[in-house]
């Protein structure tokens, strides 16, 4: 698998992700369910040119949503919490103050 296929999207607009980014130098990503920790680590290092110390993964259960009169279950997805090397940082937004 290519690194672009492994990493789906960063999860950056939650309170937990903001707290982890500020305090622990950690970043949260949604990744493919088939990807393992070694593949996730290599993909992050290749795409963002940073050092990765640790990768923790978890399967997030899909929620049940109301669809018309019935219910449907959204698919399960995998979340990876990536600990970056001290001094490394991933900039998702251009944070220039004008």
UniProtKB/TrEMBL annotation:
> Molecular function (GO) terms listed?
rRNA binding; structural constituent of ribosome
Q: Which residues form a coiled coil?
A: none
Ordered alphabetically, the record's keywords are: Ribonucleoprotein, Ribosomal protein, RNA-binding, rRNA-binding
| Short name of any one Pfam family annotated for the protein | Ribosomal_L23
Protein's UniProt keywords contain Ribonucleoprotein = yes
Keyword flag Cytoplasm: no
| Domain of life of the native organism | Bacteria
Q: Name one GO biological process term.
A: translation
Q: List the SUPFAM superfamilies.
A: Ribosomal proteins S24e, L23 and L15e
Spell out the family assignment given in the record's similarity comment.
Answer: Belongs to the universal ribosomal protein uL23 family.
Role according to the record = One of the early assembly proteins it binds 23S rRNA. One of the proteins that surrounds the polypeptide exit tunnel on the outside of the ribosome. Forms the main docking site for trigger factor binding to the ribosome.
Q: How does it assemble?
A: Part of the 50S ribosomal subunit. Contacts protein L29, and trigger factor when it is bound to the ribosome.
UniProt name for this protein? Large ribosomal subunit protein uL23
> Which organism encodes this protein?
Sorangium cellulosum
What is this organism's lineage?
A: Bacteria, Pseudomonadati, Myxococcota, Polyangia, Polyangiales
Gene name of this polypeptide: rplW
